[in-house]
């Protein structure tokens, strides 16, 4: 009786495992099939502080690509019909760290001072507004340059010497 019970229990685990595996495979296949060819929109990036920083960890062999997209981003901001975008351009600086980043990456720091309250700093949105025909290629170049992502920092002035 005991071996029959163990066989039934083993059979249940096998069936459950197969069901989970099938669900996982179907999810991957559906996810790949539903992927669009358009640039994926970045989450809205707004700063709550009076100043802000974004740390960008870029692959050492992709710094030229990243800087080329930054050049187009600056162009998009400066030439925008939107006064907030032009104001963003006035306060947005891009710095490259002299020291190597983690894993041999190159650290680029965006420093925004002042930030534009309520403005969206998402690169994909800004590029899409200015260059809708080029946004896919620009965003793929931008996105492909990252070694390990970004870190957003909101800053509030404590002392001004």
Q: In short, what is this structure?
A:
This protein is α+β, with helices and mostly antiparallel strands and 161 residues long. The chain has 5 helices and 4 strands. The chain has helices at 2-33, 63-78, 83-91, 123-130, 135-144, and strands spanning 51-58, 92-100, 106-112, 146-155.
The computed structural class is alpha+beta
- Which second-level CATH architecture of the largest domain applies? 2-Layer Sandwich
Query: Which bin fits the share of residues in helices?
Result: 40-55%
Number of helical segments with 4 or more residues: 5
| CATH third-tier fold name of the largest domain | Alpha-Beta Plaits
The count of β-strands is: 4
CATH structural class of the largest domain: Alpha Beta
Beta-strand residue percentage: 15-25%
Mean residue pLDDT: 83
Q: How would a textbook summarize the main sheet?
A: 4 strands, antiparallel
Total domain modules = 2
Runs with pLDDT <50, length 5+? 15-40
SSE pattern: HEHHEEHHE
The main sheet orders its strands as 2-3-1-4
Shape: globular
Q: Distance N terminus to C terminus? A: 84 Å
Could you characterize what this model shows?
The protein has 161 residues and is of the alpha+beta class. It has five helices and four strands; from the N terminus they run αβααββααβ. It has two domains: 35 residues; 105 residues, Alpha-Beta Plaits (2-Layer Sandwich), CATH 3.30.70.100. Strands 2-3-1-4 form a four-stranded antiparallel β-sheet. β2 and β3 form a beta hairpin. About 16% of the residues have low confidence.
